[in-house]
Amino acid sequence: QARSALGPALDKATGTLLYNAAARLKDPKHLGFLVDYIARGEILTDLQLGAALEYVRSHPLEPLDAADFERACGVGGCVTPEQIEEAVEAVISQHRAELLAERYRFNMGLLMGEARSRLRWADGKTIKNEVDLQVLHLLGPKTEADLEKKPKAAKARPAPAEKQKAAVVENGEVGTETRSLLEQLRGEALKFHKPGENYKTEGYVVTPNTMALLKQHLAITGGQVRTRFPPEPNGILHIGHAKAINFNFGYAKANGGICFLRYDDTNPEKEEEKYFTAIREMVEWLGYQPCAVTHASDYFDQLYTWALELIRRGQAYVCHQKVEEIKGHNPPPSPWRDRPVEESLLLFEDMRKGKFGEGEATLRMKLVMEDGKMDPVAYRVKFTPHHRTGDKWCIYPTYDYTHCLCDSIEHITHSLCTKEFQARRSSYFWLCNALDVYCPVQWEYGRLNLLYTVVSKRKIIRLVETGAVRDWDDPRLFTLTALRRRGFPPEAINNFCARVGVTVAQATMEPHLLEACAREVLNEQAPRAMAVLEPLRVTITNFPAPKALEVLVPNFPADESRGFHKVPFQATIYIEETDFREEMDKGYKRLAPGQPVGLRHAGYVIAVQNIIKDASGRVIELEVTCTKSDLAEKPKAFIHWVSEPLACEVRLYERLFLHKNPEDTSEVPGGFLSDLNPDSLRVVHNALVDSSVLSARPFDKFQFERLGYFSVDPDSKEGKMVFNRTVTLKEDPGKA
C-alpha cells in the first residue's frame, strides 16, 4: 500500500518513519492503517509518529476513529512560519527582563520548551532557528563577557539521610547524581505502564479477551501497583538479590503499592527450611515487610488444572525425549508433538499417578522462545517429597510454566526480573494468553555483580566443603547473612543499590564502593569506643590520684548531644605497640623517647621515662610520666588507649580472592579455589577493649577510634567478646 501511494521513489525521511513504525508497533492489525498516513505524507515527524503509536496502543481492539486519531497526532495541523514567529515573540516578551539581565547565560531551552508547548506539532529545528534569531535581535552579538564561563554555584552539603545517589556506572565507578532510590522508582521515572494499561507496553500481546481481563484485574486491585520478590528457597541471598529486593519492594513502596514475598518452591530436591527462614529474615533486615508470604506450591492444584486445559486446547503434549536430547540450541523436534489431545491427557494423568519414572515423560508447551528454544518443559516427574505438600505430588511445574501463572493469580502489575529472563518474555505472554487469564507485564533490569567474589550457590558450597570459609555467613562472603555478620548496616546495602541505580545494563562493581556506603552510615550510627589490638603496657609513675579516675568520652565527638560513656583511667594503661618507637624516623609523630603524645579524651600528655624489655630485647612495658594537657606543650599527636579493659578476640578480614574475576579461567586458569587469598582472615586473640562495650549484643556496631568500624560477632560469650572488623576508617588506596 505504501509503495503504491508513494510511487517508486521513497524519500529517506518517509522510509525512516515507515521502518520505525514497523519496528515499534508489534500489533499487525493497525500497522496498515498507520502506514497509509505515513505514505500519504500526513504523518511527517517523529513527534507525530510517537503520538500515533501511543494512540494505536491505547485502542488495541476497537476500530480506529480516523478523526479522533488525526486530532491526537496532529494530522493536517500545519504550523505556519508566522505562527512560529508569533509564539516565540510572545515567549521572549514574557522573559524579556531576565534575558536582558542574564543575556546569553539565560537558559534558552526554557524558551524552546515554552514555544513548543504553544505549538505542539511545530518543527523543533524551525522553532530553534526562530528563537536564535529573535534573541540575537534583542541582545545583539555575544560579547567577551558573554563568552566567559558561568561560575558554579556552591552546592549545599546534603544531610546524611539524603546521600543515596543515583547511578551512572562506568568501569565499576559510580556517578554523583543525588537521587534516592524511591525517587528513581517513583511514578513515571522508569517509563513503566500504569496498572491496567498493560496493553500500552511494547510487545504486549492483545487478545479479544485482554480488555475484559484487565477490567476484572482493576476491579480486584483497585489500580494498585503490585510486585513480587520470588526467590528459590535453595540457598542464601547475596548482594545481587539486595538489588532485586530493593527494586521490587522499593517500586511498590514508591508508588503506593504492595509487594509479595513468593517462594518459588518448585524443586523439592534442593529446598530446606533454613533457606525459607533466612530469606524472610534478610528481606525484613533490609527494612521491607511483604504484604503476604506466598509459595508457588500454594497454587499447585490450580497449576495442574491449567495444565490439563492447556492440553485440551492443543497447546501442550506429553513427550518422551530424554533431557540430553532436548538440551542445546538445535535439539531435534519431538516426534510426539502432534499426538492426540486425549492421549496426552491420559499420559499426563499417568505422570501424576507415578506410572512413569523420572526422565521418562515430560509435559511440553508448543511455542518457540526468543532464544530459539523450542517447546519448553512445563512439568517433569520427581519422586521427592515436597517441603510443604509432602507426597501429594510426584510431578512438579517448571519456572517457565509456573512463574507467569503465579504472577497472574496474585494480580501482579509489574513482574520485575533480571535481564537473562528477557528470552522468556514471549513464553510469559504466550502462556497467559493461551489460557485466557490475566497477563501481567514482565520488565527486565540489569544484574548487580561484585568483583573479587563468587555468589553462585554451587561455588559457595564448594568453599564451605573445602574449609575455605566456615559457612554461608562467613564475613568474607557477600551473602546478605555474611554482610550482616561482618557488620554492614542494611541502610548501607540499600544505599549501595541506590547508587548503582535502576539500570538495564549489567553493573559489575568494586567492593570498595560498598565499603564506602558502610562508612557513611556507620559514621552516623556507630558509637565510639577505644580498643587496642597489639597491647603494650604503660605505667604512669606520677599518676595524679590514688585510685582510677573516670573519663567522659563522647559517643559521637562531632555531636556531643548524643551522649557520653565513662571509661576508667588509672596508673596502668595499654597502648598500641605501633604507637611507640625507640628511634624516631623523620615524620614520625607518636610516642618516642623525647617525644610526648597526648592521650585521647584523658586530658593528659605522657612522656617516656624508662623502657623495659624481655630477655629477647622486645619492649614489654614503658614507664612514663603524665602532665595535664593545659600545662604541657601541645603534642604532635594524640593516641588511643585502654585501662581496666576487657579481653576480646578481633577478626580482621581482607578480600577472599586475589583476582577481580576468580571465576574467569583466562584470569585464573586453576579455577576459583586456586585463587584464595591466604591472608583473607587474621585473628587477634588477645586484643583489649574499653569496658563501655560490656553490655553489647551480637551485631551491635562500634567505631574503635583510629582503627575502624567493628561489629559484635554471634560467637561472643561471657568473658570473651568477639569483634569483626567491618571496614577500616579510610579506604585503602591500594584497593580503589
TrEMBL record:
Region (Disordered) residue spans: 146-167
Record-level GO BP terms: glutaminyl-tRNA aminoacylation
UniProt cross-references to Gene3D superfamilies, sorted A to Z: 1.10.10.2420, Glutaminyl-tRNA synthetase, non-specific RNA binding region part 1, domain 1 (1.10.8.1290), HUPs (3.40.50.620), Ribosomal Protein L25, Chain P (2.40.240.10)
Highest taxon of source: Eukaryota
Enzyme class: ligase
SUPFAM superfamilies referenced in this protein's UniProt entry, alphabetically: Nucleotidylyl transferase (SSF52374), Ribosomal protein L25-like (SSF50715)
Documented EC number(s): 6.1.1.18
Catalytic reactions on record: tRNA(Gln) + L-glutamine + ATP = L-glutaminyl-tRNA(Gln) + AMP + diphosphate
Domain Glutaminyl-tRNA synthetase class Ib non-specific RNA-binding: 9-124, 127-215
Domain called Glutamyl/glutaminyl-tRNA synthetase class Ib anti-codon binding: residue spans: 526-626
Molecular functions (GO terms): ATP binding; glutamine-tRNA ligase activity
Residue ranges of every copy of the Glutamyl/glutaminyl-tRNA synthetase class Ib catalytic domain listed in the record: 224-523
tRNA synthetases class I (E and Q) anti-codon binding domain ranges (all copies): 638-713
Keyword Aminoacyl-tRNA synthetase: yes
Key words, A-Z: Aminoacyl-tRNA synthetase, ATP-binding, Ligase, Nucleotide-binding, Protein biosynthesis
One GO cellular component term noted in the UniProt record for this chain: aminoacyl-tRNA synthetase multienzyme complex
Pfam families: tRNA-synt_1c, tRNA-synt_1c_C, tRNA-synt_1c_C2, tRNA_synt_1c_R1, tRNA_synt_1c_R2
Keyword presence, Oxidoreductase: no
PANTHER family: GLUTAMINE--TRNA LIGASE, GLUTAMINE-TRNA LIGASE
Homology family: Belongs to the class-I aminoacyl-tRNA synthetase family.
Protein name: glutamine--tRNA ligase
Species this chain originates from: Aramus guarauna
